[in-house]
What does this fold into?
Amino acid sequence: MLTEMLYFEPACRICGECEAIPLIRERVAEALRRHAPIVLYSPCHDCEWEASPAERRALAELVQAPRLEEGEQLFGMPFLPLSPADATGPGSATG
Ligand SMILES: [Zn+2]
It folds into this structure.
């Protein structure tokens, strides 16, 4: 099975520069499903941080976006949640 990469442009926590970094699509999707932390980094300052809620939303859109180059098998992907009500978690922790 091929490891599919996606490219995300987080704003550097230090200088605010947006530079695309490669992420493993499968790992990002897994972390989003499990509400696990996603570590982002900025090549310009070699800085690492956990993705904010806004960044997680952007990543979720990237992960769920169909691959444009291959028009086949957009449906029937077994690891995608089928219920639209799955968007909200049971409780959002504050802090
Ligand atoms: Zn920077």
Summary: The CA atoms of residues 7 and 65 lie 12 Å apart. The beta strands are 5-8, 21-24, 39-42, 47-50. The mean pLDDT is 81.
